[in-house]
Each structure stands twice: as structure tokens, then as C-alpha cells.
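testing teh design pipeline on a random one, pls ignore if ur not involved
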């Protein structure tokens, strides 16, 4: 509890920054609402930390602590051998570093294709110079970083839709699982920040509203995407190409939906063909990662293991994709009461399904063509949910991994929702009642 009190001055200072900064401002949103959204994130981060501190006491298996704990080894090295510390920080090889790497839990951890834990360890190490080992200060700093990214996402959606600002505000800042899991010292938080900053500044370039700062932030975001989870960048790349062409008026005479479908089909063919002219066999990589997840799930006695897919060929992978998508979207199902976290996640999934059904009956499909970011969001959600479903056969883990795409899912529903039809329905319900 004392550590939380020591973190409060940082919270107050960041609130002051949010209140004074022009970036955290929108003419249709009261300034205090940005501060409120930040405080909600910080509160969620503190609650998540307390849960993992008192109920999941094995820190070696708790993802929210592993980068923080490993960073202490790196931080302590700074005061023992500063030159060796700099070599570790900037990635220079030295045989003397092996002894320190071997003490860490996550330094040598590998992930799908290229997924670097080391950046998160280094980031936590640098934070220690401010936090002096107070984990709650790390939580506050991560919350602010992600909050900046979510503000970028809010501004991107608001600039494209130009209406429904209350809905956009909710989609950006208050989806429960996004609030919860991106308020911890996890790669999911860093990747959501990087993706949001990247898309916001890329769009500014497309509409000729970019500054030098926009280009710097764009390059930083690309570097983070390529370093932490390159497959996220791979999934958004074809969408970015189409958005660019549409924004530049090159494809105005073509059926937009057909352009998106054909482009992603060609892109998928290229990805699956990489094994013929590069060392990367995508199907094999996905199968290996799936096996790693299953192995870990059995080691920690996970109670939410799903049936794994047979992934031996490209055909078997494609056949497994629909069910993989459904698992990501719907798992854990309502009625799964194995833990409070799983129960809350199952309720959120049920609400997402109900929202999808409700919007399907109260939609205006022409709205899909208001902005190219609609189909970008649609294909990003489809591809990321499918990939996650293939490599993560654990319902509890699916909840966290899909948070990156959930604001985009909400944005899809928000765009096509017909407010007039919705108002008419509620008027009828009021009359019936």
C-alpha cells in the first residue's frame, strides 16, 4: 500500500500534463474526460497488480512481473560495471554478459517469428531510474504511454467519422479488457501504443497534416512494431497500402470491397509461398508456436485449454481459420466460472456478440464506405483474431492477446450502426413498456 502512495505524485503530475497539453483535447469532449479515462486506466493497473500479488503469487509465471524482475538484474549491473551495462542496453556482444542473461527469466524467450522481450526488459530498466524499484510507478508510466496511444486512436477515429463522438470515446478508452490488460507492464500495452501512434501519424501524412514530430513518432512506432511483434505490422501492411491508394484517389473507380478481398487474397498467397524462396515456413512457425503454448499451459495446469488444430499444411491451416476466429471472438463462453477474470471475460464476449447481432439489425451498410479505415479495421480484426486463435489454444490467454484489435472491432460496429434505426427501436420499446 505504501508503494501505491509513493506512485500518487507521479499520477498527479501526469494529470497536470494531460490538463495542460493541447494533444489531450478535442472540441467535442470535455477536457476532464481525458483525465477521467487516464485515472480509470491507472486504477485498473493497480487492481491487476494487487490481484497478481495476492492471488497469483508465483512471479516466475506471472507475465506482468517478469520484465520488471529481469530488469533489476540489468539495473544492478549499471552500478557494478557501467560499460557492461551499456553493452547490454545497446545490444553489443560480450561473453561476460552471459552470466547476467542466464539469471533472467524472459531474456532468451522466443515467440512467433520475431517477438522481442528484451526491449520490455530494457524499458523497465530505464524506468527504474525514476521508480527506484517501485512497481506501481512502472504501472503509472505504462498507463500514460498506452493512454497516449489510445488518444491517437480516438483522434484518428473521430477525424474519419466526424460524428458519434461519445461512442468513439468509449471505444477508445473504456472497453473493459483493453482497459484491464493494457494497464500492466506487458507487451500487449506496448504494441497497442505503437500501433495506435503509427496509424494516427500515418493518417496525418496521408491528409497532408503532418509535422516533423509526426514523422519522428511514425518511425519510432514502426521500430517498436518490428521489434516487439512484427507479425502485427505484417497483418496491417496490405491494409495500409489500400488506405494509401484510396486516400490518394487511385482506386475510386473500382469496387472497394472487391479491392480489399483481392488484395488480401494475393497477400495471403505470397505469405504462404515464402517457404519456397526464404527460410520462413509460416505454417511450420505457427504450428511450433501452438505447441509452445500448449506445453506451457500443461506445465502451469491451465484450466482453459482448448482443442489444438492439426497444422501440417497450408490447406489444414486455412480449414482451421474459421473455428480459430470464432474461438478468439467467443472464448471463454458465458458460464465459465473457473476464475473471476475468466467470468468477466466471458460476460464481455457475450456483450460483444449481442452488440454485433444488434448492430446487424440496425445497420446502414453504406456507412462502410465513409472511410477506408472501416475495411482496414475489418480485415485487421479478421486476420489477427484468426492468427491468435491458431497459435493460442488457451481461452484465458485469448482474452489478453485479442485486446490489440478490440478497439477496431468496436469502431467497425460504430461506423455501420444506424442511429436513426436504433432510436426508433428504443422508442417502440418505450411504448411497449
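output:
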Amino acid at each position: 500500500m505504501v508503494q501505491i502512495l509513493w506512485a500518487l505524485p507521479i499520477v498527479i503530475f501526469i494529470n497536470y500534463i494531460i490538463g495542460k497539453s493541447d494533444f489531450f483535447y478535442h472540441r467535442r469532449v470535455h477536457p476532464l474526460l481525458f483525465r477521467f479515462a487516464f485515472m480509470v486506466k491507472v486504477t485498473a493497473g493497480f487492481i491487476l497488480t494487487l490481484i497478481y500479488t495476492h492471488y497469483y503469487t508465483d512471479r516466475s509465471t506471472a507475465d506482468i512481473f517478469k520484465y520488471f524482475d529481469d530488469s533489476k538484474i540489468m539495473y544492478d549491473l549499471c552500478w557494478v560495471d557501467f560499460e557492461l551495462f551499456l553493452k547490454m542496453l545497446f545490444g553489443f556482444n560480450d561473453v561476460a554478459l552471459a552470466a547476467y542473461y542466464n539469471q533472467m527469466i524472459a531474456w532468451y524467450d522466443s515467440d512467433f517469428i520475431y517477438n522481442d522481450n528484451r526491449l520490455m526488459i530494457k524499458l523497465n530498466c530505464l524506468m527504474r531510474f525514476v521508480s527506484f524499484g517501485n512497481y506501481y510507478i512502472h504501472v503509472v508510466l505504462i498507463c500514460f504511454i498506452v493512454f497516449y496511444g489510445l488518444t491517437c486512436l480516438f483522434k484518428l477515429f473521430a477525424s474519419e467519422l466526424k460524428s458519434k463522438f461519445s461512442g468513439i470515446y468509449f471505444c477508445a478508452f473504456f472497453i473493459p479488457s483493453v482497459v484491464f490488460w493494457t494497464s500492466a507492464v506487458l507487451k500487449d500495452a506496448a504494441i497497442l501504443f505503437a500501433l495506435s501512434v503509427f496509424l494516427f501519424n500515418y493518417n496525418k501524412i496521408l491528409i497532408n497534416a503532418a509535422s516533423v514530430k509526426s514523422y519522428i513518432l511514425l518511425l519510432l512506432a514502426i521500430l517498436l512494431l518490428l521489434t516487439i511483434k512484427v507479425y502485427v505490422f505484417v497483418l496491417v501492411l496490405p491494409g495500409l497500402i489500400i488506405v494509401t491508394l484510396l486516400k490518394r484517389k487511385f482506386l475510386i473507380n473500382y469496387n472497394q470491397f472487391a479491392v480489399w478481398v483481392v488484395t488480401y487474397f494475393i497477400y495471403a498467397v505470397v505469405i504462404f509461398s515464402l517457404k519456397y524462396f526464404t527460410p520462413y515456413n509460416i505454417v511450420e512457425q505457427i504450428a511450433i508456436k501452438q505447441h509452445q503454448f500448449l506445453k506451457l499451459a500443461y506445465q502451469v495446469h491451465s484450466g482453459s485449454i482448448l482443442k489444438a488444430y492439426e497444422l501440417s499444411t497450408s490447406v489444414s491451416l486455412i480449414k482451421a481459420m474459421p473455428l480459430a476466429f470464432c474461438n478468439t471472438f467467443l472464448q471463454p463462453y458465458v458460464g465459465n466460472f473457473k476464475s473471476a477474470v475468466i467470468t468477466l471475460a466471458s460476460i464481455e464476449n457475450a456483450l460483444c456478440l449481442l452488440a454485433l447481432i444488434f448492430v446487424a439489425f440496425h445497420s446502414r451498410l453504406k456507412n462502410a464506405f465513409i472511410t477506408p479505415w472501416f475495411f482496414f479495421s475489418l480485415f485487421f480484426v479478421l486476420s489477427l483474431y484468426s492468427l491468435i486463435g491458431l497459435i493460442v489454444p488457451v481461452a484465458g490467454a485469448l482474452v489478453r492477446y485479442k485486446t490489440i484489435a478490440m478497439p477496431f472491432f468496436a469502431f467497425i460496429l460504430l461506423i455501420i450502426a444506424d442511429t436513426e434505426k436504433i432510436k426508433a427501436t428504443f422508442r417502440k420499446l418505450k411504448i411497449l413498456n
